[in-house]
Amino acid sequence: ASTFDVPAPAASAPAGPSCGVGLLCVGAVASAGAMARRAAAGSRKKAGASKHQLRAEPVQAPPPFDPAAQVGAMPPLGFFDPAGFCKKGDKDGFRNLRAAEIKHGRVAMMAALGGVAQHFVKFPGFDGVPSGLSAVSTAPGTYGFVALFLVAGALELGVWTEDPSKEPGNFGDPAGLGQYNTEMRQRELNNGRFAMFAAIGIISAELLTGKDAVEQFGL
Q1: Which of 46, 71, 185, 199 is deepest in the core (most CB within 10 A)?
Q2: What is the pTM of this model?
Q3: What is the pLDDT of residues 35-72, one digit of tens each?
């Protein structure tokens, strides 16, 4: 009988340094993956919270235009509009009315002052023109009225035009006084309102008595 030598099983090699390094790498990759998943979950939570905050805080609309808060509403009457011409929120309508008020006030201030001054002062060539309203219908006073009317119309239509980007009646500061502020605007409105009453009073009294602005005082 033949005899065969069966080789003995080889002994297993001991775990070397390379196996430990592999385990460390696998652990590091697993830890990095877990950290990445936690970071992604946190980002999603923050993004969801930001979207929720945006939805919960809508942009506030500006308050409606309030004519009672504009220049000219001052003591003792405050905002005085018994006829209800100025509507809350109607900025364009208020601007038109305010521009008309300032314009009439400025004309009335000049008219009231002129009604008094013409009693004492006569321009050369106008010595025979009577004082008061009769000056408009008596030559050469009529010519002066027509010239003044044309000049005022040309200035209003071509030079002193309303600018939507500025306050009503703001035509700059041609004299360079540097006094265009809230206080002076309040003063102008008050003086213009008073002058409108004064001018209509002078005209009404002269139509009733035939006396000019100074003669009405007995002077």
Answers
A1: 199
A2: 0.69
A3: 656 665 565 655 555 554 556 567 788 888 999 999 99
Side chain identity, residue 109: M
Beta-bridged to residue 78, according to DSSP, are 74
- Name, in order, each residue with C-beta under 8 angstroms of 106's C-beta and a sequence gap of 6 or more: 169, 188, 192
At 111 the pLDDT is 93
Give the pair of three-digit tokens for residue 6.
């069966």
DSSP-assigned beta bridge partners for residue 74? 78
162 among annotated binding-site residues: yes
Residue with tokens 């206080």: 183
CA distance 21 to 154: 97
Count CA atoms closer than 13 A to 118's CA, side-chain side. Answer: 22
Contact assessment for residue 203 and residue 86, using Cβ atoms and an 8 Å cutoff: no
Query: At a CB cut-off of 8 Å and minimum separation 6, what does 88 contact?
Result: 64, 65, 66, 67
Query: Which of the pair, 86 or 45, is modelled with greater confidence?
Result: 86
Q: Is 104 annotated as a binding residue?
A: yes
Ligand-binding annotation for 146, yes or no, is yes
Check if the beta carbon of residue 202 is closer than 8 Å to that of residue 113.
Answer: no
Assess whether the previous peptide bond of 76 is cis (omega < 30° from 0).
yes
Instruction: Say which residues have a Cβ less than 8 Å from residue 133's Cβ, sequence separation at least 6.
Output: 203, 206, 207
